[in-house]
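User: I'm putting together notes for a lab meeting next week and I want to include a structural view of one of the chains we've been expressing. I don't have a solved structure, so I'd like a prediction I can at least talk through. The sequence is below, exactly as it appears in our construct file.
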Amino acid sequence: KSVFTSFMTRQAIETYDNFDDAVNFMGNSSTIGPSYVIIGGYNKNEGGVLTFGPNMTLYDKWLIPNALPVNNTAQPPFYVLETNYDHWTPAPFYDDRRGPGEACMNEVGQKGVGFYTLYNVLNGLPNRNRLTTYTALMDSSTASLEAYYQYCDIPECF
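Assistant: Thanks for the context. Below is the predicted structure for the 158-residue chain, given as structure tokens.
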């Protein structure tokens, strides 16, 4: 039986106390519609993106270290970046948020990461556009969650 991604995610959080078990549970679940689940654990190198197709038509597990960006800066890669496009395909020319997002994260650097800087990366153009409905920031080590309703009505948004 297929379920809503939000219900599957909630069940994983409520049932499993470690990253691997939660990922395995979600990977064996069938979702009603397509979705991306960005997942992070408590421990170093526990993070990635799970891609679901409706009714188990697609499942992709893109975890650290494979999900880390190509190291093209002086610092080692330290983040996983997901936009609204499958990671295995190039970003479309008309909506490339992947390149600008990676550039912003590389500029921030690992030591500069926090809710304030992450919000600025996600809220900056072109990462925020007319289709952005909300931005959520979560930290599993502190059980923190901040969510912001978004709508971009300035001319530069497309």
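A couple of points you could mention at the meeting. The mean pLDDT is 92. The CA atoms of residues 50 and 61 lie 5 Å apart.

User: Perfect, that's what I needed.
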